[in-house]
Amino acid sequence: MGKVFISILTFVERKIFIQFIGVEILGLNGLFSNILQILSIADLGLSVAMGYSYYEPIAHKNTEKIAALTRFYSKLYNVISAMIFLTGMLLLPFLKYVININKSMQNLYVYYILYLINIAVSYLLVYSATLLAADQKGYIVNSLMTMTSTIRIIVQIVIVIVYKNYSIYLFVAIGTTLLNNILLYNKSRFMYPYIKNKEISLTHKDKGDILLNLKSVFIYKVSGTLLNSVDTILISSMIGTAIVGYYANYQMIVMYITQFVGVLFSAVTAGVGNYVYTESNERRYELFDSLLLVSFWLSATASAGVLCLSSDFIGLWLGKDYVLGIGVSMAIAFNLFFVISMQPVFVFREAVGLYQKTKWIMLIAAAINLVLSVVLGKKYGLSGIIIATIIARLITYFWYEPRLLYKMIFGKKAGIFFVKYFTNVFVTIVCIVSLELVLRPFVCSNLLVFIIKIFIVILFVSFIYIILNYRKPSFKWVLTKLKYIFKREKG
Fold first, then answer.
1. Is residue 290 within 8 Å of residue 472, measured between CB atoms?
2. Residue 186 has pLDDT above 60, yes or no
3. pTM over 0.70
C-alpha cells in the first residue's frame, strides 16, 4: 500500500509542479536527471558487484567477511560521491549545448549544481541498503524509502504552491536523501553489529576478485546507462527541452510500472543467487521458466495498458494539451514490453554475475543506439529516438544474453526461449488489437470510465494467459506462490 500511496502523491505533485512552475522546468529536471545518471557510472556498477559478493558470506554466516566487505565498500562509495560531484562541475560549461529553452543560464547553473549535490550525497552511506537487500531484507529498505519519500513529496508540494521556487524544491530533495541514507545506515548497524568492527580487512585476493568482477560490471553498466540516458539528452538538443517535459509524463507512468515489476523481481534476486549455488541445472531452469511466465504476463498487461490507456490518463491527469501522438505511445509500449519480459534474464545475470561474458555486447548496443537515435530522430522525431533504442536492444543483447544463460546455467539450447518469446509477442499483439476494438467506443470522460478500462485490460489479458498456460508446471508454481502470499498476508 505504501508504494501505491507514494505513486498517487507523486502524480499529484507532478500536476502541481507543471501548474505552478511549468513544463519547461519539468523538462530541465528530466534532462538533469539523465545527464547525472550518466555521471553515476562512476559507481562502476558497484551496487551490483557488491550484492553479488555478499551472497556467499551471508549464506555461510561469515560475519568477518561481511564486515570486511562493508568497510571496503564504504570507502569506495565516499570516493565515488566525490568523483561524481567533481566530474559534474566540470560539465557546467557544456550545459548550454544540450539545454534548449528560453531561460537565464545563470539560474539553470544553480539548479544543475543543486541537482548534482543531491546525486552526490545519495552515495553516502548507501552501501547499507545493498547489505540489507543481499540478506533478503529489501522490505526494510523499501519501508524507509516510502517514509522519506512521503515526507519529501508533501514538503515539495507545499514549497511549489507557496513559493513557486525550484531551488528550495531541490534543497528539500537533498535533505530527504540524506535522511533516508542515515536511517538505513543506523538500521544496518543495529541489525549487523559486527560490521562496526574496523580491524578486519579484505585479503588482497578478495580485493582482486572484486575488482576483476567490478571491471566487467563497469563496462556493462556504462553501456546500459548510455543506452537508457542518451535519449533524453538527444530529445532536448534536437527537438527541445520542453518536449522532454511532455515525454517525462509518459516516462513517469512507465517508471512506476517498471518499479512495481522491479520490486517483484528484485525480491527474488538474492534467492536466485543462493538457488544457483545449491540446486541442479534442471531445478534452476524450472525457476527461470516460472519467472518467465510471470514476466510475459506482466509485460503483456503493461504494454496493452500503456498503448490503450496512456493518452486517456494524461488527458484526465494534466489535460489534452499534454497528450503525445499514437506513434509515441506505440514506441513506449513496445519498449516497456521488452524491458519487463527480459526481467528473468536480468535477474539470473545479476544473481550469478555473468558480466565478464556480457560486458561488450552492451557497449555495442549503446553505440548502435546513439547512431540510430540521431538518424531516426531527425526523420521521425521523438518516436524515432525511442524506436532506435528498441532496435539497438533487439539486435544485440536480446539474442546474446539468453544464449549465454541457457548454455552456462541451464545446460540447454536457447531456441526454446526465443520460441516462447515470439509466441508471447504474438499473444500480446492479439490482446492489444482486441482491446483497442473493445475500448475504442468508450470515451474516457471521467475517472470511473478510466478505472473500468483498466479492469477490462487486466481481466482480458489475465484470462488469455490463464487459458493458454493453466496446465503448465510454471503456472502451477505461480499459483502456489500466490496462495502462499495470500496466506501470509491473512496470517
1. no
2. yes
3. yes
